[in-house]
Amino acid sequence: MKNAFILLCGLGLAACQNDFLDLKPQSQPNVDNFYQTANDFGNAVNGAYDALQSSNQYGGDFNTLIEARGDNVLDNDPSSNAGLRYNIDRFIEPTTNTILRDTWGSLYTGINRCNLILDKIDAVAMDARLKARYKGEAQFIRALSYFNLVRLWGKVPLVLQAGTTTDARSYVRNEVTEVYAAIEKDLTDAAANLPASYTGADIGRATSGAAKGLLGKVYVTEKKYAQAVPVLREVITSGTYRLLPNVADVFNVANKNNAEIVFAVKFRKGVGGSLTEGHGLWYGTNIGDNIEPTLRAAYPAGDKRLPLTVQIPVPSNVNVVPRKFYDEFSATNDVGNDFPVLRYADVLLLYAEALNEVEYQAAGEAFQRLNEVRTRAGVATYTASQLATKEAFRTAVINERRLELALENDRWFDLVRTGTAVDALKVTNITVPPYRVVYPIPQSEIDTYNNPTAFPQNQGY
């Protein structure tokens, strides 16, 4: 999708000012002139997907900000990059940490691209179904971006239209409930606008099932379990997705867009030059194992998911990488794993969790869905005598999520939303001040806005 990114850069749409959330394009006339045809909007939508590929998002930094922050991965290199990643892993990052700044900016860059599409598309004549699809894709990407923002930082500016620098000066940190309401609306609209599937080169784009699945995840995060149940059930009963018999096959780079992938950020290695669509090794290391020992210890004997956490060597490279994200380098020195944002196994576990929270039922459907995941992993299923209460089932399903979704940027968010982050990190000998369950707002934003009332720093920083 980088071809669209280069095009947008040439038109002044991707380069933004350095302050006020990077939301105002430098060249407004070029913006107005660009959005004229269906093809223009197709390129613009590709540019919105491109933001997700950024090394500051799914291309790399999310692995530090989300996975390493939890109890699955550890950073054992305090000297690298002046400790930028190590400090995040150890909960000692300052407000000036540049990873925070760059990820914040990347997320709002993607949001701005979606806003421009949604602001301008209704005025352009094109096939109605194609217009609906483009709107749905922009709504989905904007919702996903805000979902990550609100979980990382709490209150964030809610910007739903492309604005001017003057507009940006008035932005405030909106309440978390306002941000979630906008996410819910975008995903509800996206589910109505998007097709159930694609063919050919369009396979891998956001679908109605992806929008519904992500909406269900949002509802579970908000503890709106009664609303989560029907929307997740729709994804399950659609017949579109299934668990692959062999869990390792889900991550095989030769088996992308398989039936278990609800939505993934797509990458492609070997493109090279300014159009590169690959990435570096995820969780690669050459100074010892960086998988937290408590993660591997949590797997039952014979669990088929355990080998996916084992570090294996990469040919012609000094690093080792977890088998889950193994790929060999291309001639342009990159790899091309897709990043699974939402899998069918995740949907099943979210659904089981929501059912249990609505009403615990001994040997009910929640047990069935949880046990589907365990059966595929080759471990014993749970019985009602083992999980005899709502609380026991809740603990089991959150633990199952850790085992099933390890290294997929879910664990930290699961710990935060269940209020167990502080206790979980104690087991790894890390003391987490409670205020650090959200990150500090990048200091550059605090300094630029200079408004402690409307744009304050998060408490404790």
From TrEMBL:
List the Pfam families hit by this protein, alphabetically. SusD-like_3, SusD_RagB
Q: Name one GO cellular component term.
A: cell outer membrane
**Residue ranges constituting the SusD-like N-terminal domain according to the UniProt record:** 19-219
Q: Which UniProt keywords apply?
A: Cell outer membrane, Membrane, Signal
Name where it's found. Answer: Cell outer membrane
Signal peptide range equals none
Sequence ranges assigned to domain RagB/SusD in this UniProt record: 320-461
Q: Which InterPro entries match?
A: SusD-like_N (IPR033985), SusD_RagB_dom (IPR012944), TPR-like_helical_dom_sf (IPR011990)
The record's principal subcellular location, in a coarse class, is membrane
Identify the domain of life. Answer: Bacteria
| Record-stated family | Belongs to the SusD family.
The protein here is known as RagB/SusD family nutrient uptake outer membrane protein
Q: Which organism is this protein's natural source? A: Fibrisoma montanum
Q: What is the lineage of its organism?
A: Bacteria, Pseudomonadati, Bacteroidota, Cytophagia, Cytophagales
